[in-house]
Design brief:
mainly alpha, 59% helix
Length: 185
């Protein structure tokens, strides 16, 4: 099974039946390996695991720390969710690694993951603009919050475009070396 992840020219990728548990185990065993390949089944099983685990942990968080009913948006967003947050941190590197391997399996470079950083520039401009706007506001109203949100709209749109692009790459079928995939073994 490790031969699928080696970059040796002599190894042949063995097609095998991927199970849910096998895909999750593979993602955690090879959590820091950004080279190699992952099939669509491996990738999507890991995504399914991530979503299901986040739902379960979110439910546990809300049972242990029930949400406080409030009209204040910031207070509502600052509800404690430690289990979900710890889980998200644990999944960060394995998610990036399996996405990189999936993109490479489709014939693209795993370096496309760097596109996830593109929204940072418009976000910084939005943060600077929102700060400048808030300096002149004494008592913010609902309209002021919408105006501040508009400063971050370009960053959200760029983030959405990047996510759609990476989704399309992950949906692409696997390419073999004979089909022109230079990342295939």
């Amino acid at each position: 099974n490790q031969s699928r992840f080696r970059s040796s020219k002599t190894t042949v990728r063995a097609e095998m039946k991927v199970t849910f548990a096998g895909a999750v185990k593979s993602a955690f065993v090879y959590f820091a390996l950004f080279r190699g390949l992952s099939t669509r089944a491996e990738y999507w099983y890991f995504v399914l695991f991530s979503v299901l685990a986040a739902l379960v942990l979110g439910t546990i968080d809300s049972v242990i720390w029930p949400p406080v009913q409030t009209d204040d948006v910031l207070e509502a967003l600052n509800q404690p969710t430690p289990f979900s947050n710890i889980f998200a941190i644990i999944l960060l590197v394995p998610s990036l690694a399996i996405t990189s391997r999936r993109i490479r399996d489709a014939g693209w470079s795993g370096k496309w993951l760097w596109s996830l950083l593109l929204p940072i520039v418009p976000f910084l401009f939005g943060a600077f603009g929102a700060f400048e706007y808030l300096v002149n506001v004494v008592n913010p109203t609902t309209e002021d919050f919408f105006t501040i949100g508009a400063y971050f709209l370009p960053a959200l749109l760029v983030a959405l475009m990047v996510q759609i692009f990476l989704l399309v790459l992950c949906l692409r079928p696997s390419k073999s070396k004979e089909d022109g995939n230079r990342y295939a073994e």
